Amino acid sequence: MKGNDRNDQGNKTMNMIYKTIRKMGVNSKYKGYYLLADAVKIRLESKDETIRITKDIYPFLARKYKLTSGSVDHNLRTVSQISWDNNPQFINEIAGFTRSDKFTNSEMVNSVAEYIDTQMKKENQTF
Length: 127
Hints:
This protein has helices at 3-23, 31-45, 53-65, 69-86, 88-95, 105-124. The mean pLDDT is 92. It contains six helices and no strands. Helix 1 packs across helix 6 and helix 3 crosses helix 4 (69-86). By secondary structure, the protein is an all-alpha fold.
């Protein structure tokens, strides 16, 4: 894959991530919007590796955004609550089943990453 093709694919992926987060009912005024987007991107890029949210993703995001790991956790919990309050039907679609409560942070990152991966595979299918 050429450099520009990789950039185009990366931009397409991030656009899809942002679109999904907005559809969840979360807008960019929340820090967690960007934290979730980056966490999902990390998850998508390392789907074959074991990634631990609190040991791998939180410290990386904390350094990138000059936050503490506790702040990263709090901001992601806020996004989870807002998405559950604003669009529980879409959360159930992402989860693949009817949930009785909001996502935990790790469930949210993994479920959104799986949803994005599935949507991208559908878009790339050739008939």
